[in-house]
Amino acid sequence: MIGAPARLQVVAQFFGIITGSLVGSIVYLRLIPDPAEMLLTEEWPAPAVATWKVVAEALWPQPGAVPYRQDIDCIGNFISHDVRFVNYQFTSAFNPACVRIGG
User: Fold this and answer.
1) For the chain, what are the domain ranges?
2) Cα gap 35→29, rounded to integer Å
3) How many angstroms separate the CA atoms of 70 and 79, rounded?
4) Cα–Cα distance between 38 and 82 in angstroms, integer?
5) Range 2-8 contact pairs with CB under 8 angstroms and sequence separation of 24 or more
6) Burial of 86 (0-12, 13-18, 19+ CB in 10 A)
7) Whole-angstrom Cα distance, residue 103 to residue 85?
8) Per-residue confidence in pLDDT tens, the chain, 103 aa
9) 45-54 in b/e burial notation, b at 16+ Cβ within 10 A?
10) pLDDT on residue 1
């Protein structure tokens, strides 16, 4: 799609996302038809599932267990903005993304 108009690239990405989501879901359900019973066993240890299960169980009784730090979020936003500004001023290439720090 190099050189294609932006509108066609957006349409292609949209259909790629939809197709990938549907195919990925179908393959997952064929591979593991009953995730509640099959995951976290000897055959399917699923370490990522176990990690997020522990996080969900830790936060479920008290949703405010992870405090929100507005000061860190503001500092991260300023750093992100400064990095983008410096990158824009001193490079000829357009860099549309910058990692957001702090939030």
Assistant:
1) 1-31
2) 8
3) 14
4) 48
5) none
6) exposed
7) 19
8) 678 888 999 999 999 999 999 999 999 999 889 988 888 888 888 888 888 888 888 777 776 666 667 777 777 777 777 776 776 676 656 555 555 444 4
9) ebeeeeeeee
10) 62
Length of the chain: 103
Q: What is the pLDDT of residue 103?
A: 42
Nearest to 52 by CA among 39, 70, 38: 39
**96 to each of 10, 11, 42, 91, 100, how far by Cα in Å?**
16, 20, 44, 12, 12
CB 38 within 8 A of CB 30: no
Q: What's at 22, amino acid-wise? A: L
